[in-house]
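It would be a great kindness if you could assist me with a short task in structural biology. A protein sequence and the structure tokens that stand for its backbone fold form the material at issue. I should value your view on which stretches of the chain appear to form regular backbone elements. The record follows directly beneath this note.
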Amino acid sequence: MPLGIKPECAKCGTRETPLWHATDVGNLCNGCLEKDRAKAAAATGAQAPSSAANNNNNKEEEQQESKPARKSTRITRFNGKTIPGKPGQQILIKSVPKGKGRRHIFKKTPMKSPAATATPVTSNFVFYKGSYFQVGDIVSMQDIDGGIYYAQIRGLLTDQYCEKSAAVTWLLPTTASPPPEDGFSPETYIIGPEEDLPRKLEYMEFVMHAPSDYYKLKNSPYPPILAEGGRGYVWTTLANEANIKK
């Protein structure tokens, strides 16, 4: 529009307005445009509520007819109560006893492992480092100061870890006994105190075989005099038996 020429409203013919609007019918002033918008809003507002309500009612009826009433999968929680169904209807849920589900069936009570307990096995003889130890054998043990002491095996034990140990009875030397470093003379030793706790066989060194009751004579506190000669046995040796057979 050329400068200096004011437009004219196509409806009211005015040339003075705070805002002009270009429409299909021509330029309209702000007042005429507001009047047209008010008339259009009044005409559509009267029809819109009624049509929207009809559309909503129709949609609800179609949904209710197409979809059945939804039933809960956990019917046990109602316990004979009624739940709403279609408009004007109620569905009665029968009380069903609550059973064990699949998750509960496969769930087992945890079992505790038994406590580890030592179970030593007693025996009359054991095999240890290439030799047999039996009840009644004479063994020697050395203390931290280097002293040698002799004892007789009273019992043999093997624990769950295959560690072998022996309960011993200490033998006490007499005035006729030779020094412990020079050797062991069985007829010069007498029976001493008994130990309740076993000692490991690795601390013991085999000396000779002897009967388990050799030092436990009832008529005398001293053992009988050793009459036979030889090494390794108190009463006899293989060499003496060989000589007797000849």
Notes: The longest strand covers residues 148-158.
